[in-house]
Amino acid sequence: MTLLAVFRLELRRLLVQPLAWVLLALGLAWLGWCFTRLLGDFLAGEIQRAALPLLGQLAQIAFLVVPLLAMSTLAGERRNGTLPLLFAAGVPASRIVLGKYLALLPWLLAWLLLTLAMPLALAHTTTPDWGKLAAATLGIALMLAALAALAVAASAFTSHPAIAAVVALLLGLALWTVNLGAQMAGIDGGAINWLAMSTHGQNLLRGLVSTADILWFVLLVAVCLALATRRLAADKERG
Fold it and tell me: Which one, out of 6, 47, 66, 98, has a CA that is 20 to 30 A from the CA of 233?
């Protein structure tokens, strides 16, 4: 079985899974309500003042939505007893992890694009700051990709989807707030601030695109997928 086959299988599972559609609908409903509250900024002709807070709202609920969406990627296979079937088909652990992870990305990208469609629907009546909006969109996309990788890793280390969702939620929140104490103490630099997801995500949300911030998210994705692959390979060796 190829990587593309695993990707198609996982994407098809998401398309027929009621929870995925419910999460998408509830997420968009919440963001739509937030959009109506920010509509006054659009009428004032300042799209970026409304679009950026809307993306911030998406980032907040992503900590809950992404773990719920990805909780069954590997934990569900293990609970249902179908993971050995993938191993028996000769699929390497790396292909299983990568295929399932990549299947999550189109869903999350669609969620982001549908959210952006709300403020962009009024862009023709304003003069938006396209550069700042593009940077913020890139930041949210990277954040969604990182949270998805974190959720896949959590799913790889557990045997129950609900536990995987809780672990992914807690890890995501911990990564976001790990530097909170340092900030309260007035410390803006240092390793603890570099480790925090908020440091890099907020820079992009403010329109500041940095290679170091982008590489941080890429590194987090790579580490999470490597850990998930290692765990799955160990399961395969144990039979």
Answer: 66
Distance CA 135, CA 69 (A): 25
Predicted TM-score (pTM) of this structure: 0.87
pLDDT digits (tens, 9 = 90+) for 197-227: 988 988 888 888 999 999 999 999 999 999 9
Helix residue ranges per DSSP H, 72-129: 75-80, 83-88, 93-120
Instruction: Report how many domains make up the chain.
Output: 1
Q: Alpha helices, DSSP H only, in 121-160?
A: 130-156
First-to-last alpha carbon distance for the chain, in angstroms, is: 19
CB 144 within 8 A of CB 66: yes
**Given this model, what pLDDT does residue 42 score?**
52
With H, G, I as helix, E, B as strand and everything else as coil, classify residue 195: helix
Domain with 44, as residue range(s), is 3-238
Q: Which two tokens stand for residue 172?
A: 């995501």
Cα–Cα distance between 13 and 15 in angstroms, integer?
5
pLDDT in tens, 32-78: 777 776 665 555 445 555 567 778 889 889 999 999 999 999 998 88
